[in-house]
Amino acid sequence: MITARAAATFEPVGRSVATARAFVRDTLQGWGHGDIIDDAVVLTSELVTNAVVHAGTAADVLCLRTDTGVRIEVADRYPEREVPVQSSGQALAHPDREGGRGLLLCGALATRWGVEYTASQKHVWFQLDLPERPAGTRTAGPALPADALPVAERRVRVAVIQIDRGGCISSWNEDAQDLFAYAPEQVIGKPLTDFAAWPHTPGTGTGIVEALQLSRWEGSYGIRGADGRVVPVYASHLRVRDADGEPSTVCLLVRDHERAVLQSPPRTPSDSSGQQSEGHGPADPFEVFIGSPAPDDLDGLLQRTVERARDMLDGDAAYLLLATDDETELEVRASTGLPSARQRFARVPVEAGSGRYGSARMPAVHEDLTAVQGAVPLLSGTGMRSVVTVPLKVEGRLTGSLGVAAEAPGRYTNEEALRLQFAADRIALAVERARLTELERLRRGSLSFLVEASDLLAGTLDRNQTLALMAQMTVPTLATWCAVYTVADQASEPELSFVLHEDEDRIDGLKTLLQKVPPPEPVPTPGARVWSAPGDAAHDAALRTSLRSLGLGASARPSSGPGATLATASAVGGETVVLPLVARNRVIGMLTLGKPTEEHFRQEILELAEDLSRRAALALDNARLYSERTAISQSLQRSLLPPELPDVPGVEVEVIYRAAGEGNEVGGDFYDLFPIRDGAYGFAIGDVCGTGPEAAAVTGLARHALRLLAREGFGGPAVLERLNAAILDEGARSRFLTLLYGELWPQRDGSAVLKVVCAGHPLPLRLRQDGTVEPAAEPQPLLGVMEDLELYAQTVTLDPGDVLLCVTDGVTERREGTRMLGDDGLADVLTTCTGLTAGAVAARILRAVERFAAEPASDDMAILAMRVPEAVHEGQLP
């Protein structure tokens, strides 16, 4: 039965063979089948070579996992080239033959293998059965004196946590509650990843999700307790299934310094009789783990290295430093017997000297660190007195440093240094290969991360959304928490604009803390700089809270205040760095990244954050420019709209205006209603050719010119003739304009008299009380085309109950496919508006236009409805 599968296709080029090997290795490692990886990789390499080199076609590699083993198929696209086999179906047996060597390996290493042909492909497959692991196997260690036994508390607590298929906690025992201070109801049903502090760089190595899927895993990480502090633990994960076949993971956890309770004892080399080989003391611990971790599991390899080094020299602590990507500094990558959280990724500058790395190239022994202050800064304040350090070198190039320390002075001599150097030389190549693999994965992950970040940042011009994206991209991928400060101008103080923490419950406390701390200086110097103010403030706040709690007494202690303060201090107490946000040669803000208590950033993460800050700064500045220009545009557009419409005695007036295009408030359509003199009002509705800012400019010219000319005493035809001349004077910027202009005089008998000029505009429609609809004017030439126009005014009288409807062509030219609303369609809608108020008439026309087509309107639209109500009688007008 097939339980898992993975497939990939490789191009017919030489480098595909190495890529295929890596694919199979990663797949089997992920499935937890490390015992058969070497054989599978060798066979895959031979078969893919046959496909891409000899057959010259692409190779399809398929990995299938069954209950008993793993089957791997390699297919090429050249079935005509037969596999050299004997009639019995076995591979050619002579190893000196030119062909068939890969099949010789299949016959020698695989449990079963075969060849299958189709019309388009040739499949060569092999199967490797999993080695049997008898139940009940035990391991034993020698009897040790009491002073050599591991140190543990009086009662060792073993947390038993069960994780369901989805990664959520389904069982939480009493020891787990004692260790981490969570009651079962607080954690059951939540993912373990919400509580685990995994010592893992994003994009490299094995993550906790992958570890929970392996059949067995063992190692160190941390669990965040209820007080916010990380409890270092040593864990053993075992994948099981119940009687119904439902898989789950059982996790056993103890405090990290009590790891001997769970840690699998190392196997020692033995001779054919099974007895430990003789020599100088116990077997070399480095024999145990070389090759046992996964080839790309750098963290596991380094952790085992320091533990074996400590055991080999009977030390109290050990640490290992690796060169950074640019090889200018060394950073702590693994330690034991030291505060690992504080030391991890701490950077140590390489001493200058005649060689490339100076004195770091040679072994060194310090008999008493108190006599030479600062000789090994990494061990300051740890209580270690003597230390021996040796370099890790590959082909003469320093790639790291390994050290073992003891609390007693004078513990180490040159003899121990030579032993440690011999062991370091044996593992240096494996460590360097794993380091380079991690760096390559980190580079690829960084490129993918930056590409995705650039796409997200380019997808918005909203300032607040850009700030949120900046924080969400850094937490938790690059940091535990993030704060973004913005700077309005050089004279302004930085302002805290956005705060995010991976634990949402701590965001408010973190924001409150940062608001009490003076913001970082907006220095344009590129790169990350350490900012100690948040950590110092958090430490002081935690200290004051603790003292106040002790003074109050246990019975009067506040229920949540001290705990929240301590949790915030724990969350902010690690390394905090500030990166400037520089755009267009100006500091526009700072990106602040933080780690929890006593943790450090690794150099590659800081370089990735610096790349992100440059992209984020440009995106934030673009959002600022867009916001400013949008505000200016909207202000200018609002200036083109008429002010609040006046109340016309005895006449209801309603206007609906819609500008086409997102963010536009004014387009090519416009309207106006204004008093000319006592008892007389001017109204207009027009349409400038086109949409957008160019059309809006002519809109402003027309609306202001109409008001000015009408109030100067010109009649309708004279007003439009002079407006026509003004439009033509614009030259290349001029646009033709359709315009309906009229003057309105409410009458004492309840009617209204209008004089209307329709210059190329859709004709106004008059709705009578009996439901009939008719044009209220005749068409005349539009404006902005000819210099000499002869226009005339037409008089219209609106009786009580009559409606005059004026629209732009965005209404009449509304389309759905080949259909168009048109003048007739508008008239049909207007006939249904008898007895409605002017507002109701305009609203019904708008609904009819919107429902005519499913797509949004693409043209500006203006609707002006005027109605003389029936209730107005003679004598009511002033």
Task: Please explain how this structure is put together.
The protein contains 20 helices and 34 strands. With 878 residues, it is of the alpha+beta class. Strand 24 (669-677) and strand 25 (680-688) form a beta hairpin. The chain is elongated.
Write a concise keyword list for the protein shown above.
about 900 residues; HATPase_C_sf; about 25% strand; alpha+beta; disordered C terminus; PAS; six-stranded antiparallel beta sheet; about 30% helix; elongated; single chain
Mean pLDDT: 79
Straight-line N-to-C gap: 96 Å
Uncertain segments are: 86-99, 135-139, 201-205, 266-295, 352-359, 552-560, 872-878
Strand order of the largest sheet: 7-6-11-10-9-8
The residue fraction in helices comes out at: 25-40%
Strand content: 25-35%
Q: What is the overall shape?
A: elongated
Structural class: alpha+beta
Region (Disordered): 261-290
Protein name: SpoIIE family protein phosphatase
Keywords: Hydrolase
Biased composition (Polar residues): 269-278
